[in-house]
Design brief:
Elements (H helix, E strand, L loop, with lengths): L4 H18 L7 H7 L11 H12 L3 E3 L16 E3 L1 H15 L1
Antiparallel strand pairs: 1-2
Helix pairs in contact: 1-3, 1-4
Length: 101
C-alpha cells in the first residue's frame, strides 16, 4: 500500500493545521482537535473520501480517528475527525526537509 498524491494533499493540510500545536505538546487534546478539524478545506461536510484517505493514513499511524462527540445518537450523520500523531509530525518534518533540498 502506498500513499497517493491525493492522500498526501489531505495529510499535509491536516499537518499544517496541527503540527504547530503538536510540536509543543505530547498530544493534541480531543477538544482542540475537533475545533481544528473544520478549518481544513473539507470544512464540516460529510465526505466518505475523507474517511478513506484518513483511514489509510491511520493505518500508517500518522493520524488517529477521534471518538465521536458524546452528544450524537445513532441517526446522526457526521464526519469523522482525525488528529495528527507524533509519528505523523515526524513524517511531516521529513517531507518539509525533502522539499527544501
Amino acid at each position: 500500500m502506498e500513499l497517493s498524491a491525493n492522500d498526501l494533499v489531505y495529510f499535509l493540510e491536516l499537518a499544517r493545521l496541527e503540527a504547530p500545536i503538536l510540536a509543543l505538546k505530547d498530544h493534541i487534546d480531543r477538544y482542540s482537535a475537533y475545533n481544528i478539524w473544520p478549518r481544513g478545506s473539507w470544512g464540516g461536510r460529510v465526505d466518505n473520501t475523507l474517511d478513506s484517505v484518513f483511514g489509510k493514513l491511520e493505518s500508517y499511524s500518522l493520524v488517529s480517528r477521534l471518538a465521536p462527540p458524546n452528544n450524537l445518537n445513532i441517526t446522526a450523520d457526521f464526519q469523522h475527525a482525525y488528529v495528527l500523531l507524533k509519528k505523523g509530525l515526524r513524517f511531516f518534518a521529513l517531507i518539509q526537509e525533502k522539499t527544501r533540498e
